[in-house]
Amino acid sequence: MTAPRFLQIHTLHSYTAALLNRDDTGLAKRLPYGGAFRTRISSQCLKRHWRKADNDPHALHRIEGTEIAYRSRDLVTELVIKPLRGKYADEIVEAIEPEFQKAVYGEKADKGKRSRQTLLFGAPEINWLAGEAERLAAMAKDAKTVKTAAGDWSKLFKENMKAVRATTAMPGGLTAALFGRMVTSDPAANIDAPLHVAHAFTVHAEEAEGDYFTAVDDLKKDEDYSGADTIQETEITSGLFYGYVVIDLPGLIANCGRDRGLAARVVHNLVHLIAEVSPGAKRGSTAPFGRAELMLVEAGDRQPRSLATAYRKPIGHDLDQAVAALDGHLARFDATYETGEERRYLSVADMPLHAYGPFSLKALATWGAAQVEAAPDA
Q: How far apart are CA 81 and CA 123, in angstroms?
């Protein structure tokens, strides 16, 4: 195999009596596929839970050398302007804020937060903005002069910010380095995502039930009234979900400031998070915690390809059957395309894969991280 460009991660996760990801009506998200509706977990849901797993020992923010990021409509208000209040006269701060809001969020941004796009900025970018606001406030003689200075600063904002980003290893923080960033008001700030995440779906037809439940008033007296205090209904589902993630290794290395050691640590932690962190609403009433019962990791230099079509025809809700379907589909791809990916896997199923393994999760994460060192440059 030549130098690996892509790491492909396939998983099977099982969840019982849960409501993992809801739509706008409060029901489980669904996907029509192969003539049957499946229960679905959106990629946004999966990515958010991996990103926000702060208490996990493999949390992304625990990786040495990474930068945090903030996603908000109030980046300027809370992280740039708020530190100036009480330190400088109110009229000075009020003269600076509109220019910074417009520079970051666009011309209509000073009309209120509803006119702003929710943006993702990294700590290096925020720190530079806060430093510039501090500099303008410190040199101000009065509100009129600082407003003029802030207006002139705003005109040069994009070019100056471009220079800051060019000289910073991870300007948008690790979140942008992994999941990308789109800024409609400043295309130069866009960052391509090296992590590509598919919507997970059940390998079988949906399994769902309406859950009728009540809440009872503990202090109610029998003579007050009869029955429950609250009667509600929700939906619960069960399912064996196929998940698929692709990591563009050269893209990740580039977004990590070409620091291969840092990129390797990111891959190591991501493998752990994908296997161990569960999405899920209604945690208090369903405890939707599960770990991957199968994780197959492939390293190769050809265009990635999902193995979702192994489940185009719904199968039974059975792990061994799901593993067998995946393995058979993979064998047919190998015979047809001969792309030569190198593979490792972990599994708790009785059915083996025709790949090298099984391994422990620790060994699998270590192997995945090692592929970064062998990957080509972007």
A: 15
Cα 137 from Cα 143, distance rounded (Å) = 9
Cα 147 from Cα 76, distance rounded (Å): 16
Whether residues 313 and 251 share a domain: the answer is yes
Neighbours of 252 (CB within 10 A): 25
| 24 SS3 class | coil
- pTM for the whole thing? 0.91
DSSP readout, 41-98? Answer: E-HHHHHHHHHT-TTSTT-GGGSTT---EEEES-HIIIIIIGGGBTTB-HHHHHHHHH
pLDDT in tens, 149-195: 999 999 999 999 999 999 888 999 999 999 999 887 778 889 999 99
The reply to whether 341 and 207 lie within a common domain is yes
> By residue range, what is the domain housing residue 92?
70-169
Reading the block at residue 334, the tokens are 């190998």
C-alpha to C-alpha distance for 134 and 100, rounded to whole angstroms? 12
Q: Give the closest residue to 322 by CA, choosing from 241, 223, 245, 261.
A: 241
Residue 292: which of 307, 306, 276 has the closest Cα? 276
